[in-house]
Amino acid sequence: AKGAGRNIYRFFEPEMGVAARTRMTLELSLRRALGGEEFEVYYQPRVDLKTMTVIGMEALLRWNHPELGQVPPMQFIPLAEERNLISPIGHWVLRQACRDTVDLMRKLGRPLRVSVNLSARQLRNSALPAEVQAVLDETGFPAPLLELELTESALVEDIEHSAHLLRQLKDLGVKIAVDDFGTGYSGLAYLRRFSLDVLKLDRSFVMQKESHTSHFDFIKAFVDLAHALKLSVVAEGVETDDTLQFLCSTACDEAQGYFIARPMPLAALIQYLRSPSLL
Ligand code: C2E
Ligand code: CA
Ligand code: CA
Ligand code: CA
């Protein structure tokens, strides 16, 4: 019973670490940001390796903090997850990404796919499929052009529940991508357990000495395996021309990375997509 009071008191104890103070301040301003105009969605283009054209983009959240400047997602997403703020934030990103992409497709007169990151917490929320459907209805965004990215650790956390929710999401007509593939140790069995559409090979996986023959064979084997499972493959974190050329020599379907384009605000993306030569 004394616990709560003591915790409040503890806020003011001098030994409270700077890190804890910062987290407290961040949590308060994160709640404020949700109600205001501080969040912004950036977009990173995704290129089809056969045609070398942009076929879509990944939505990446940015927080423009009035005093701290732009706070990187790695600094506030884990906190948002911990403090139960990730579902409303994720919902905001999804809605904004669908709105922006509808607008973009209208301006450019061609279809574009958009992928949105979901955290493990959001996957635990049984209302997620209904929320996604509501956003599709509200924005008029075509379900088959929406891709939801989940890490393998989020998927395997509770396999039964994940499989159930993924089926419901797939019933809406949206696509499911495994993010950061190659960074976990979950084995490959889960790839068959879920109805997935896309594997996103993590940067660390793609980057390794791309000239090395065994690495080439390794990546090539993964791409072939994914294709055998009817999954398409996106290479993330492509930073050099060499890596891009290497990927083109495999059957990898798409690529994304700084060498192609950095994540950018919507206005810059419109300019980028309108410029005739991209690569
Ligand atoms: P992620 O989903 O793996 O996103 C890719 C990250 O790699 C992005 O970092 C992107 O800017 C960065 N990146 C892209 N190309 C390159 C490259 O060539 N080299 C390098 N070094 N990095 C590259 P960002 O935007 O800082 O996001 C970091 C992570 O934060 C994301 O990793 C994702 O896990 C999380 N995140 C971002 N937005 C959201 C969101 O709306 N919801 C959730 N739940 N998580 C998000
Ligand atoms: Ca992602
Ligand atoms: Ca990733
Ligand atoms: Ca990542």
TrEMBL record:
One of its GO terms (molecular function) is cyclic-guanylate-specific phosphodiesterase activity. Residues 23-277 form the EAL domain. It comes from the Bacteria. One of its GO terms (biological process) is cellular response to nitric oxide. This is EAL domain-containing protein.
